[in-house]
Amino acid sequence: MPGEGPAPCLLCLATASGLPLFCRPPRPQVPFSLVGALHGVHLFGAAAGVELREAATPTAHLAWGGYGDSITLILLSPSPAPPGPALARTLDLAFGAMVLVLGLDELVPVRNVERLKRELRSCFGLIDALLKPGGGWGLGPPCSPLPPGTPRDALQERLERFSGAAHTDLGCLFFGGGAAGALRTRRWGALPARDSALLAALLPPGGALGPGPAARDLPVFLPNSSPQVPHRLLLLELVPGVGVALLCGPTPSLQHLVTQLVPQFWGPVLEQLRGGARPPPPRAPPRSYLLIHQGRTRSGIVKGGGPAGSLPPHLRADALRTLHTLLAPQYSPEGGARGPPPGARLCYTALPTHTGCCLLRPDLLLLLLLPPGTPRDPLHPTAMSALSALTRE
Amino acid sequence: MAERDSQDPQDSQDPRDSPLERGWLLSPPGRPYLESLLQRNRRRVFGLLERPALPPPLAVPTLPYKLFLVGRSGVGKSALVAALAGTPRTPRTAATPAHHETLGIEATTVFWPAQPRGSARPVLFQLHFWDCGDGALRKFEHLLPACREELDAVLVLFSFTDRASFEELPAQLSRLSGQGLVTVVVGTKSDLSPHAAVAERDVRALEAERGLRVLRAGAAPGGARAGLARAAPILDSLAEQLWKRDQVAAGVARGEEGTPPS
């Protein structure tokens, strides 16, 4: 029975005919009668002029998303699931992944259902990575800042020149398993959040594409920026753990890049790149804070900040993630949202196992885990002292 | 790659005819070069800027080659490249699908040291395997010319479990042959003999008709060194054919001097 397993289940249907296009994960299989009922209730609402978005049952959370009157996505998530906008965001990212690989023209309108079913199989890697528990793209793998001693400015300048030689202004140099520890050209940093989240999901290592090839040339359609015109996403692994991503037009060819441009621009800084490569961070290390500042995300343990309470280390990551998912879409400065409402400085959640505290500022967001039962008054000074300890590093 | 018996055409040619010493890398003289391919007992993954680390007395010239894999969707192109490169593949579980289509071009680099017969020093073959998903090739016109640019060899793959892929071979071979291009046919999934849809005699008939050798590849579990031992015959064969082609093009065929290129 779907919804009782640990992973959410995503269904995709053609809206007009109700024909199922795919179901990830394929096992356990969702009975067709259930698929039909879920689709039917969505159509019933639409006929009455109502858009059905979410429903909660004792065993599951359901979310619907309709795209262009052509594709319907239904998400079945075991409860308790992340509340609020997380489900809608997952649906959005799943549709974005479909557009990324196939292009909007293939999906809206659906012309040939059988052909579309075959072509959608290419998206399964991305969608499986999205649905993996704890693997959602909202937070991504634990991100670390650039290691000390990395000559950031020199590498940034080299990245700009390399992108220019490749006839593009969209480039990104990524380090060690997290797009946040990355150098970007200005235009890459200005990409809409959904596009950059999808691109970040593809970056090796730990991306949805898997290890192995040192160079890749993928045609992608950016869902927000250019859903109908493909770009070439070039992923070049310079040393294990450090690579360059470029979004290019028809030139230069991958052969030219690999044989000429990469050795010319990145050969001289090989040692510095090696210094920047680091093994992927261990899964769910103990963390007590999460800081989002200037587009970079950092997490870790505040030195001298006291214990995080009775939460065991492996649950802290989830607690932080839940808190982030709850608050980021509304308050995060980089979430493309309105920003913190004027006058708001701090918000907190008090739970039996921990207290989560979130410091809001126009340019940053700091999430802290504190022992349960922390009184309200010291929250703000605690958060401020943690922040100063972190920014001093 | 499964062990094959003595009827394997890969062994049928007299080893003394080969311009490169077969199995040299796994023998004692090749040991320091073999060690440079491994890291902590696993195959080392090299980035675009990296080479196997060899001490200066053992330094050898590097010969880069580009090889393009061609074959129907699902025939095992990406799997073959992963096996030759020694890249770990996700273990197949009930949740992981058996086949993920490659989204675009994937270029993997495999370093293969080899010892030319009669030469003092070995050479290092830098083999770039280019693999592109069949669906993507058909949908996007720029991918095929990109794969064919500066190409040295084509690997045409068919699967022993897919009859249609075998029957497409003549068309593929005539479409892709070009001046100076080494063509190699590889049959994948050779270990799934109960499910084989292509019989041995069909393969031998093709070999006789076209005058080429069909290499075989099949999956089998094992660690890094075992995987390398299984990949060695295929890589040796590829290196040998590329070496021969270059020798003929340079006018220096084995044992003959001053022969004009044909």
Automatic annotation (TrEMBL), chain A:
UniProt-listed GO biological process terms: non-motile cilium assembly; vesicle-mediated transport
FUZ/MON1/HPS1 first Longin domain ranges (all copies): 9-130
UniProt domain FUZ/MON1/HPS1 second Longin: residue ranges: 190-266
UniProt cross-references to Pfam families, sorted A to Z: Fuz_longin_1, Fuz_longin_2
Entry superkingdom: Eukaryota
Protein name: Protein fuzzy homolog
UniProtKB/TrEMBL annotation, chain B:
A GO biological-process term: cell projection organization
InterPro entries given in the database record: P-loop_NTPase, RSG1, Small_GTPase
MF GO annotations: GTP binding; GTPase activity
Location of region: Disordered: 1-27
Domain of life according to the entry: Eukaryota
Keywords, sorted A to Z: Cell projection, Cilium, Cilium biogenesis/degradation, Cytoplasm, Cytoskeleton, Exocytosis, GTP-binding, Nucleotide-binding, Protein transport, Transport
Keyword hit for Methyltransferase: no
Biased composition (Basic and acidic residues): 1-20
Subcellular location: Cytoplasm, Cytoskeleton, Cilium basal body
CDD domains according to UniProt: Ras_like_GTPase (cd00882)
Family the entry assigns: Belongs to the small GTPase superfamily. Rab family.
Protein name: Ciliogenesis and planar polarity effector 2
Gene from which the chain derives: CPLANE2
